[in-house]
Amino acid sequence: xxxxxxxxxxxxxxxxxxxxxxxxxxxxxxxxxxxxxxxxxxxxxxxxxxxxxxxxxxxxxxxxxxxxxxxxxxxxxxxxxxxxxxxxxxxxxxxxxxxxxxxxxxxxxxxxxxxxxxxxxxxxxxxxxxxxxxxxxxxxxxxxxxxxxxxxxxxxxxxxxxxxxxxxxxxxxxxxxxxxxxxxxxxxxxxxxxxxxxxxxxxxxxxxxxxxxxxxxxxxxxxxxxxxxxxxxxxxxxxxxxxxxxxxxxxxxxxxxxxxxxxxxxxxxxxxxxxxxxxxxxxxxxxxxxxxxxxxxxxxxxxxxxxxxxxxxxx
Length: 315
Description:
The protein has helices at about 5-20, 35-50, 65-80, 95-110, 130-140, 170-175, 180, 185, 220-225, 240-250, 275-295, 300-310; strands at about 25-30, 55-60, 85-90, 115-120, 125, 145-155, 165, 210, 210-215, 215-220, 255-265. The chain is of the alpha/beta class. α2 (about 35-50) links the parallel β1 (about 25-30) and β2. The chain is globular and about 50 Å long.
């Protein structure tokens, strides 16, 4: 090989290594009438992560003007305490939900050439260790990986089993509806989708291939996320991870959870609470939309289920 080609090859190898070690992550955080949780989330990022590794876009979905004012005060305080922290705030005129809200934040980073990866982070996530650089490097080094996420614990210190799941079958959809969850003896039978309940403890030391991560903390390559169309804006809440999984099937890429990296998901402790009627309507609407548009059930099931649930809810 000519000496010139050797020098060129070495140059590109070095540039690639340097690029891999200097990845900028755009962190998208939604706030909906919970400025206190958002403040704790931001404080944990500033405490554990290096400010030259991330930029934050806080999307405020709040309908409470008092909470919005508190959020802005908290952000201003954090900017004064940590001047290097890059925090941008988008104030929405109405609550646009999970998918549209996160898309707004992701689109903010679209033309930012410094940002090459996007971390979708719920405002009720608390970092307890540095995770960003290791998540980022794993995603960069594994081109067959589309999404990477950490292990989640709830505030009681127990593993949040919803952070690593298999895709749902039709039985799972029906059993996990808010209406059926009230019948605990039926709901308890359906645990096959929770991967961590079946994994031996020694498997927690290596990356795990899963189908559905928790939508509260997941990292994408920005360009890849753009190519698959970000989150489907037709859902307000629920089934976002299922839709992402369906989109990934056309790409051949994997979803990976790194169990040696972890953080706390405060909201995970409240999943057993009875949801409101509005939350139930969002669940059913998203379920029907997913079944119709992504699951292949375009015949009786979506509309048959829709007819049944209309007896209980106005969707």
